Amino acid sequence: MKLLFKYSFIFVCVLFLSSCASAPLKPPLGAIGQAIPPLDMSMPRQDVIHIVGPGETLWRISKMYDVNIDEVIKANRLESATKITMGQELLIPNAAPIRPVIPLYETDKWKYIIIHHSATDQGNAFSLYQLHLRRGFWNGLGYQFIIDNGTFGKGDGQIEISPRWIKQQDGAHCRAAGMNEQGIGICLVGNFSKEQVSEKQMESLVYLVDMLRKHYNIPKDRIMGHGQVPGAATECPGLRFPWEEFWSRLNSKE
Questions:
Q1: How far is CA 187 from CA 18, 23, 92, 143, 192, in A?
Q2: In the CATH hierarchy, which top-level class contains the domain 104-251?
Q3: How far apart are CA 218 and CA 162, in angstroms?
Q4: Residue 170 and residue 164: Cα distance in Å, rounded?
Q5: Is 249 exposed, middle or buried (CB count within 10 Å of its CB: 0-12, 13-18, 19+)?
Q6: Domain boundaries, the chain
Q7: Candidates 3.40.50.1000, 3.30.70.120, 3.10.350.10, 3.50.50.60; correct CATH number of 33-101?
Q8: Shortest CA distance to 82 belongs to which of 65, 51, 59?
């Protein structure tokens, strides 16, 4: 009877954690650490509205803005710290400038970093999640990371983390050469065959790639654009993507 109760409890927990309408109040299971940039103490705090992205938890949102969870619960009259919904607007009181909170894992799964563009003028993780669901992608958003361009309520250069990364799942961003299974997909919002990568997007891309390549020991010759993957017939991340500038900035991180 005890064994039956144990497995029933585990099954209920799995269903709870997989729900879009619920979010656990602690770091992702299996994470060995969190990469969080230092606070910029020169920037003022202010009340902000945060749109809950795919896979975000109240714990991570509170860390992103350096605000106590209880203050967010009180400001939004939430019944529970675990009851937030993808796409929901949350008031974050007295928030510091937003920082990415990126869980890191001990794994040898990731061998490559693949850079994409959304090929859209606007977007964020939530809108791309919805787009990918309509296109039949399993589990929605196909990338592990999104770098926003200042549209749909997100900051220019803001880094969003996909549920695929939090759960360490295969991607759905590059079928060629098996990159879905071994490549970390980073998508910058924008169409870089027609426009330029913003300065803040480039800063965030260099920060993210540098952190990931060092943690997972990914050599530079395995950092590439989607269209550079053998067998991939695409111009992604765009004909005007500034590769020379990207490599120059990445090399300066040595």
A1: 23, 24, 26, 7, 11
A2: alpha beta
A3: 20
A4: 7
A5: middle
A6: 33-101, 104-251
A7: 3.10.350.10
A8: 59
C-alpha atoms less than 13 angstroms from C-alpha of 235 in its C-beta half-sphere:
9
**Of 85, 83, 48, nearest in space to 66 by CA:** 48
Written as tens digits, the pLDDT of the chain (254 aa) is: 333 333 333 333 333 333 333 344 566 778 888 999 999 889 999 999 999 999 899 999 999 999 999 999 999 999 888 789 999 999 999 999 999 999 999 999 999 999 999 999 999 999 999 999 999 887 889 999 999 999 999 999 999 999 999 999 999 999 999 999 999 999 999 999 999 999 999 999 999 999 999 999 999 999 999 999 999 999 999 999 999 999 999 999 88
Which residue is listed with tokens 């020379």?
Answer: 244
